[in-house]
Specification:
Blueprint: H1 2-8, H2 16-35, E1 40-43, H3 55-58, H4 63-72, E2 77-81, E3 88-92, E4 94-95, E5 98-99, H5 101-109, E6 118-121, E7 127-131, E8 146-149, E9 154-157, E10 161-164, E11 167-171, E12 173-174, H6 187-194, H7 217-225, H8 232-245, H9 254-260, H10 264-281
Antiparallel strand pairs: 1-2, 2-9, 3-7, 3-8, 4-5, 6-7, 6-12, 10-11
Length: about 280
């Protein structure tokens, strides 16, 4: 495939021979993932936009359906739906303002990346790390240039390519062929490590009243219940920390978290993380 991609970057590679070779590689890549039980769908040739309007419902692992899609959209990029039964993917971004490799090294140094089944190099110079899929939702820690792609998300997969006008930006490349999924990423533990350290609270001035102890479970539950997609775990974590610091019952936040759309596993892990964080602050 490398020869095909390199040749495709030249003007003469736009002829039917190379186009057909690339089409066959894209179809083969989609079918390989489908055989692993992953749901795939076509994205715009040279881009990331889904070709199917209702891709979360229509994405498929059926070989006949996939073949029909790539017969119709012959140069379509290949996307895999993240979250069980597909993979959870840690997306390391590279942007003009920074990249996620420092944060990735923090996770690596704590042993959280040992379960990565495969690594994909992405056109931007970043990486995708593949883990066993879970029921967690897609989320991102602020300012760390990492995206956790899980339920509700998708990623492009090899041999997809990204183009800018007539120029090839680059392609997606497996460092080793993905053959299955073994271990899930402990994302709540990763978020614990990537959050900024808690700032000490300023001492109250003499003669003033501290309102910090006026946190109520009603306020915390309301903030969790109204959390938007992509923010639910973080808001539940902060609410859990506040409840723990003020001696309130964390379990009272469980029902609002369910109403916000979090799974029992996510709730358990996030509340446990909040408890551990506050206990560490206290030196417990």
């Amino acid at each position: 495939m490398k020869g095909v991609v390199d040749s495709w970057n030249s003007t003469r590679a736009r002829d039917g021979t190379y186009a057909e070779a690339l089409h066959l590689e894209l179809l083969a890549g989609a079918l390989r993932l489908a055989r692993l039980g992953f749901r795939v769908h076509p994205c715009a040739p040279g881009g990331k936009a889904p070709m199917l309007r209702d891709w979360p419902r229509r994405a498929s692992s059926d070989a006949y359906t996939i073949t029909a899609w790539w017969d119709r959209y012959r140069m379509a990029n290949v996307a895999v739906v993240t979250g069980a039964p597909g993979p959870d993917v840690l997306d390391v971004d590279v942007r003009p303002g920074g990249n996620g490799f420092d944060a990735l090294e923090v996770l690596r140094s704590h042993g959280l990346l040992a379960g990565a089944t495969a690594v994909v190099d992405t056109p931007s110079g970043g990486q995708h790390l593949y883990f066993a899929g879970t029921g967690r939702r897609t989320s991102s820690p602020a300012g760390r240039f990492l995206d956790y792609k899980a339920t509700g998300g998708y990623v492009l997969v090899p041999p997809s390519q990204i183009w800018s006008g007539d120029d090839l930006v680059g392609g997606y490349r497996f460092r080793a062929e993905l053959t299955g999924l073994d271990t899930a990423l402990d994302w709540p533990a990763a978020l614990d490590l990537l959050r900024p350290p808690p700032q000490p609270r300023p001492a109250a001035k003499p003669g003033t009243r501290s309102f910090g102890r006026r946190v109520s479970l009603w306020q915390l539950a309301a903030s969790v219940r109204s959390a938007r997609a992509g923010e639910r775990n973080n808001i539940l974590f902060r609410a859990g920390c506040a409840a723990r610091r003020h001696g309130l019952d964390l379990e009272t936040l469980r029902e609002p978290a369910r109403e916000a759309g979090l799974s029992e596993a996510e709730i358990d892990q996030t509340l446990d993380s909040a408890k551990r964080m506050v206990d560490r602050e206290r030196g417990a």
